[in-house]
Design a protein that fits this description.
Elements: H1 25-33, H2 40-52, H3 56-67, H4 74-86, H5 91-107, H6 112-122, H7 127-138, H8 148-153, H9 160-174, H10 178-187, E1 195-196, E2 205-206, H11 209-217, H12 225-233, H13 240-253, H14 258-265, H15 273-285
Antiparallel strand pairs: 1-2
Helix pairs in contact: 1-3, 2-4, 3-5, 4-5, 5-6, 5-7, 6-7, 7-9, 9-10, 9-11, 10-11, 11-13, 12-14, 13-15
């Protein structure tokens, strides 16, 4: 969702002997994101995790952290390129391989292997492959725009989860809500499908694609009543997580029509304090 759907590093990373000890890859990459210097040993910790870590969860965590950086040091990119080549196209490796491909396309678009792999995975028979490729393209920065026309084809994918992830990436890359509205609205009325962007024993796993779709709709800036009313329809759902996301998206969307306000005011009684609070905050946000 804003979570898409929709999720480091500048020039001189010199050594910093006075820095407190950072032992985990997460800690090191967070420091880089904050503009702190890191030691040569810490750089090698990150490189070692990328090249040698056989645990998909830890590897995905490291790759995700690198994707959040503003720039990526050369040695990290070299390690990612080596690991990308070593990972297979089996489902067990696709989580990490898609993230590695996003890093390479983002910062080394002149290298064709990762781009070619993404393009091939978008049309793969595996739903997991198509979903992960669609997500990776949305995280590839400006270089991801080269895939927009191919990504649009996935708005008609047989899988609702793939359609939603593709829509989130297209919105991220183009800022054009119009091209993804129909796919997202249609996805709200079909049976739930899970979206997993990492191995399921870790985060980035959503049990219902509608959670992600509702979150993406809240990123629209057009105050569309049609979109708002579709979100209001979710307020009758028994899924309280979906209800909370719909309320939050309604606040962000900003449509103040009476039909929308009445739907929020007439929300069924819910004991969940998070929903009660979000309903109050949504009504406050939508005051004229």
């Amino acid at each position: 969702m804003s979570s898409f759907i929709l999720l480091l590093i500048a020039g001189d990373l010199g050594s910093a002997a006075a820095e407190p000890s950072r032992t985990s890859v997460d800690d090191i990459l967070r420091s880089l994101k904050s503009g702190d210097k890191i030691t040569a040993a810490e750089r090698q910790t990150v490189v070692g995790a990328i090249e040698q870590d056989d645990t998909q969860i830890r590897l995905c965590r490291a790759l995700d952290a690198i994707l959040q950086l503003d720039d990526s040091p050369r040695e990290f990119l070299q390690a990612v390129a080596v690991r990308f080549d070593a990972l297979s196209d089996a489902d067990r490796d696709l989580y990490a391989k898609s993230k590695a491909a996003a890093i390479l396309v983002k910062w080394r678009p002149q290298l064709p292997a990762a781009s070619a792999w993404m393009e091939r995975m978008l049309d793969d028979e595996s739903q997991t492959a198509r979903l992960l490729a669609a997500s990776a393209i949305g995280r590839a920065g400006a270089a991801g725009k080269a895939f927009v026309s191919k990504l649009k084809r996935r708005l008609d994918d047989e899988s609702a989860a793939v359609r939603v992830v593709a829509a989130g990436s297209l919105l991220q890359l183009t800022g054009d809500a119009e091209i993804v509205t129909d796919a997202l609205l249609a996805s709200l009325s079909v049976e739930p499908e899970a979206i997993a962007l990492r191995p399921r024993t870790f985060s980035e796993w959503v049990p219902d694609h509608r959670h992600v779709a509702a979150g993406i709709l809240g990123r629209f800036d057009n105050q569309s009543e049609a979109v708002a009313l579709a979100l209001c329809g979710l307020l009758r759902d028994e899924d309280e997580t979906l209800l909370w996301i719909a309320l939050r998206s309604l606040a962000s969307l900003g449509c103040r029509s009476e039909r929308v306000l009445d739907a929020i005011r007439n929300l069924r009684t819910v004991d969940n304090p998070a929903i009660v609070r979000q309903r109050r905050e949504t009504l406050e946000a939508l005051k004229p």
